[in-house]
Design brief:
Elements (H helix, E strand, L loop, with lengths): L4 E5 L3 H9 L4 E5 L14 H13 L3 E6 L5 H4 L2 H11 L3 E4 L2 H10 L4 E4 L8 H9 L4 E3 L6 H9 L6 E9 L10 H6 L17 E3 L7 E3 L14 E3 L4 H6 L4 E4 L6 H21 L7 H6 L8 E2 L21 E11 L2 E6 L3 E2 L3 E5 L6 E4 L3 E2 L8 E2 L5 E5 L9 E5 L2
Parallel strand pairs: 1-2, 1-11, 2-3, 3-4, 4-5, 5-6, 6-7, 7-11, 10-12
Antiparallel strand pairs: 7-10, 8-9, 13-14, 13-21, 14-20, 15-19, 16-17, 16-21, 18-20
């Protein structure tokens, strides 16, 4: 059976570890320059080299984003950056700009070149042209339907791989090319510095009525005119693969390590179940439930089945149902060694997500601080704790609690 690649995001080293631990086939990230997400800490060259080495030891690939649209003064720095990333052992660059494409071919010829969704590839002729220029993969525009994708697959060289986003935030602008942030606050979204003004709440002012504002309403209410829903294709990965997609990409380089862990784990299990069950595949209910446990906006299937996802006009915030309260550093001789992340109490029932299994619940009892004193609460961030339990909590497990 055709096997797709699960591609997970990493905005920092902790997110990278989550992607590795929870089953990514490949990880995409950025260096300190030329990436479309400047808010995360991203990776300096030493950290990048170490992470790539660790990934390759587990047969996981690493793709480095060079997907900004660099200006003249920035493009002069590109050759050195490309050479350094190639020396770190990167498997591919993700590129949006044709000038960067030509420089990558010259200065890092052994590193594969993937075309970013920022390039807005929507037809087979463009995909063919990019393949002839040396691209090994195209990340298609998010605005395509499954029929569009299948059409591109059918009319391009089979060696050209197709990648699509299957989960995460969507952008109100075509393939993420947006000028709202530049116009509103002078932060260029096309150079990795988006302030996300599409998520802000807007009002209408009348020229001669100082200090008075009027809500901008769409039918039944709401003023978040640009606030796109989140994409979730977990129930439709069979359709994605049948359309000829090689790589299933999770959005989220600016998101937490917890988000990376949960989404990677969910899609990993869904894909593995599909490979095992084939045409009889049916998504396990717990997998779909997992994606409700990360911070997200209202889910939908994007453009894959035609039409448009639309906006959530009534609210600009996230749905947050769970929070991580601790991480398991080790389990030995009936004792779980934990690091606290959010406050929790003895007697709480926590939802545990292990790196290589299905979530399970456990009531926290017999909790002790680093001095060995029994305690009723864990109120301090990064506090070291131990919990006595006959139920094994595998190393790297995330302990979660439903929010009130």
């Amino acid at each position: 059976m055709f096997r797709g690649e699960l591609l997970s995001p990493a905005g920092d080293a902790e997110c990278f570890e989550s992607a590795l631990r929870f089953g990514a086939d490949a990880i995409y990230l950025a260096g300190k320059q030329f990436g479309m997400r400047s808010a995360p800490s991203n990776f300096d060259m030493d950290t990048l080299a170490g992470c790539i080495k660790k990934a390759h030891e587990k047969n996981v690939k690493v793709y480095v984003t060079c997907n900004t649209l660099p200006r003249n003064e920035e493009i002069d720095r590109m050759p050195e950056f490309l050479e350094q990333v190639a020396e770190c052992g990167a498997d591919a660059f993700i590129i949006a700009d044709l000038g960067v494409m030509s420089l990558a071919a010259k200065y890092a010829p052994k590193v594969e070149r993937h075309i970013s969704t920022q390039a807005g590839v929507v037809n087979y002729q463009t995909a063919r042209f990019l393949y002839d220029m040396g691209a090994s993969r195209v990340v298609l525009a998010r605005e395509l339907s499954l029929d569009d994708i299948a059409g591109i697959r059918a009319k391009t060289n089979p060696r050209l791989e197709i990648e699509v986003f299957v989960h995460g935030s969507m952008c109100v602008s075509f393939s993420g090319r947006c000028l709202i942030s530049s116009y509103m606050v002078g932060r260029d979204a096309n150079r990795g510095d988006c302030a996300q003004p599409c998520r802000w709440k807007y009002h209408l002012f009348e020229e001669h009525r100082d200090g008075q504002y009027f809500p901008v309403v769409e039918e039944n209410g709401g003023t978040y005119l640009y606030n796109s829903r989140d994409l979730c294709m977990i129930e439709h990965i069979d359709d994605i693969l049948k359309a000829g997609v090689k790589s299933l990409k999770i959005e989220g380089r600016a998101k937490s390590s917890y988000y990376v862990a949960v989404t990677t784990n969910a899609y990993r299990h869904a894909l593995d179940d599909y490979y095992e069950q084939g045409e009889n595949w049916k998504l396990s209910p717990w997998i779909k439930e997992e994606l409700e446990k990360v911070s997200h906006r209202e889910y939908n299937t994007g453009f894959f089945y035609g039409g448009e996802p639309g906006q959530v006009t009534s609210d600009g915030g996230y749905i947050r149902k769970y929070e991580v309260v601790a991480v398991c550093d080790e389990y030995k001789d009936g004792i779980a060694y934990l690091t606290q992340r959010n406050r929790f109490f003895s007697g709480d029932t926590v939802d545990i997500l292990p790196p290589d299994g299905i979530p399970f619940n456990l009531k926290i009892e017999n909790m002790y601080n680093e001095l060995g004193e029994q305690i009723d609460a864990a109120p301090h961030a990064m506090q070291k704790l131990t919990v006595r339990t006959e139920t094994e909590i595998p190393k790297g497990s995330l302990l979660r609690k439903a929010r009130n």
